[in-house]
Amino acid sequence: MSKKFLKGKVALITGAGSGFGREMAVAFASQGASLVLNDINLEGINETRDIVLNSYNVDILLAEADISKEEQVDMMRKNVFQKFENVFLLVNNAGIRGGSSTLKTKTKDYERVMDVNVKGAWNVTKSFYRKMTKQKFSPVAGKIINITSCAGTECGLNPFIGMYSVSKAALIAFTKLWALELGPNNITVNAICPGIFLTPIYNNDPDFIREWIKLRNIKLPIDKIGEASQVADVALFLASPASDYITGQNIILDGGMTISINKL
Length: 264
Ligand SMILES: NC(=O)c1ccc[n+]([C@@H]2O[C@H](COP(=O)([O-])OP(=O)(O)OC[C@H]3O[C@@H](n4cnc5c(N)ncnc54)[C@H](O)[C@@H]3O)[C@@H](O)[C@H]2O)c1
Fold this sequence. Notes:
The chain has 7 helices and 9 strands, in the order βαβαβαβαβαββαβαβ. It is an alpha/beta fold. A 7-stranded parallel beta sheet has the order 3-2-1-4-5-6-9, sandwiched between helices. The chain has a two-stranded parallel sheet with strand order 7-8.
């Protein structure tokens, strides 16, 4: 049997206490990764750790930190490198919903969404990339995966969640900029861009999601709500050697939603 491809490698996942973050933790552990589970919700990451350890015997560090706060992120980095020697995979997954029409959004709501979805990912990447560039893994020294959203793409921009759209468009831009900036250091940077998935961000409620889809007149060519494990499958591909030559891409995972506008 071939060796697990994440053995000896550490995966740091922000927002690992729930939804996609939890599924990705299980997926990376299945390939032997050690894990750093970050969240502001300690109970959530405790549960994720228990779920992972139920199936896989891997090293896990719980890192309770608010990624929007630079000093908490820097403290997290110190704790991580006291325990581990590398962060091969950095997954900027933590994010929050937010907003209404952009011009009616209050400053405090703008700041709340942008602080987590944009500044949070920037804080974490800024804090960890230097060490990642010095890692001796070959041919790729490290990989960054951002979890964006179709709401941040040209076809998916949505005035009903306007500030969320703005934040995810910025994260897509960061993905491409970091790919340019870190490519010479053998670090790949890609994004997974989900459509509509059943997770706590949608209250884990398929009826609520269906209502929202109807209200927004959204058409899904593959008429199914996505499952978090499908995001984890793509994350595992991006974490694997099979994707080593891919960088700067925003991989859309939406059942065809964004190509269907005005066509169905
Ligand atoms: N579920 C979907 O349909 C969908 C679609 C597109 C994009 N996304 C994106 O996927 C990512 C994960 O979302 P999810 O659906 O799993 O939602 P979720 O609410 O289940 O998970 C998000 C996690 O992030 C954590 N978090 C929030 N603020 C934080 C902070 N400041 N610091 C650290 N952790 C923080 C939360 O506590 C939570 O555990 C988000 O970025 C979201 O925008 C989700």
